[in-house]
Specification:
Number of strands: 4
Shape: globular
Helix content: 25-40%
CATH class: Alpha Beta
Order of helices and strands: EHEEHEH
CATH superfamily: Ribosomal protein S6/Translation elongation factor EF1B
Radius of gyration: 19 Å
Strand content: 35-45%
Structural class: alpha+beta
CATH topology: Alpha-Beta Plaits
Largest sheet: 4 strands, antiparallel
CATH architecture: 2-Layer Sandwich
Strand order of the largest sheet: 2-3-1-4
């Protein structure tokens, strides 16, 4: 399982009920691929830099997901064909780091180890 970050943009005139329905649909989709939604944040309504599908504003949501590798393409494809989502971006999340900037023990164990060349004697 890998951490992913999903950002979606809904049309600016989307009602609260419709926004909730879209988020529930995403949660159901994530659970169908054996993943889980860790948390979500609403960034609110913002003006778009350029019109998308004749919309000049959008409602932004940011979701942290835990997905199996084979689940990410499914989520990506479903977001592309969903007419209620103007834009989306699904990216692999960052490695967990502590306050000091060092990897936490669990993340450090999963990180790839790079071997250094040995000095000749």
């Amino acid at each position: 399982m890998q951490k992913y970050e999903l950002t979606i943009v809904l049309p600016g005139d989307t009602t609260e009920a419709k926004q909730k329905r879209v988020l529930e649909k995403i949660e159901k989709l994530v659970s169908n691929v054996s993943g889980e939604v860790l948390d979500g944040t609403s960034w609110g309504k913002k003006d778009l830099f350029y019109p998308i599908a004749k919309q000049t504003s959008g409602v932004y949501y940011f979701l942290n997901l835990f997905l199996p590798a084979e689940g990410a393409p499914v989520i990506n494809r479903e977001m592309q064909i969903d007419d209620e989502v103007l834009r989306h971006l699904l990216v692999v999340g960052e490695v967990n780091k502590g306050a000091s900037g060092h990897m936490l023990p669990k993340a450090a164990a999963k990180a790839k180890k790079v071997s250094k060349p040995r000095a000749k004697k």
